[in-house]
């Protein structure tokens, strides 16, 4: 009996150590990917939504949109897909606010596609992928914050979308806020890799984009 208890303890400790190593490796990968920029020409840009305040983009969303405008002006892609639905009580969707902002910055309406239903990164990118597939496009530049890079790249791979992650260089999420976001992303990526990012999005919103 004592031998069985000792064996059980050893197995538990071993599993705990394996879990710690797995989280540590994932953390390093999230951090390393947050420092990489894979910007290159593609048929479209997909901008991940973030909070909006009664029709005005938050600082986080504005930084992402400004980067998308820069990529569009550099002619790296002819289309921009803006994403994000609304929360209960909101008068506007994140995508609608994003589209209006792009138009105010000179991006023509004909170049802007709107995904207005997503409430998570997986939902938004999944819907954007369907929109692009309707135009025979399966490749895109993904725009979000640096800490988000590894997870959205993994989601894109799960969806069969060829992705080039181009994080905004002007995000207001810096310092301690960025470190906390990387910690949350580490947990989200670690869980998503085990159970699948689609299942993760359907079961629980592990990470919410800071506003």
List keywords for this structure.
211 residues, 7 helices, elongated, alpha/beta, two-stranded antiparallel sheet, Rossmann fold, 7 strands
Please identify, by name, the CATH architecture: 3-Layer(aba) Sandwich
**What is the 3D form?**
elongated
Unreliable sequence segments: 204-211
Strand order of the largest sheet: 5-4-1-6-7
Number of helices: 7
Query: What is the distance, rounded to the nearest whole angstrom, between the alpha carbons of the first and last residues?
Result: 54 Å
SSE succession:
HEEEHEHEHEHEHH
The count of β-strands is: 7
**Beta-sheet strand percentage?**
5-15%
What is the CATH homology-level superfamily?
HUPs
Average pLDDT confidence is 90
Helix content: 40-55%
| Name of the top-level CATH class | Alpha Beta
The major beta sheet can be summarized as: 5 strands, parallel
Count of spatially separate domains? 1
The CATH topology label is Rossmann fold
Q: What gyration radius follows from the Cα positions, in whole Å?
A: 19 Å
Overall SS class: alpha/beta
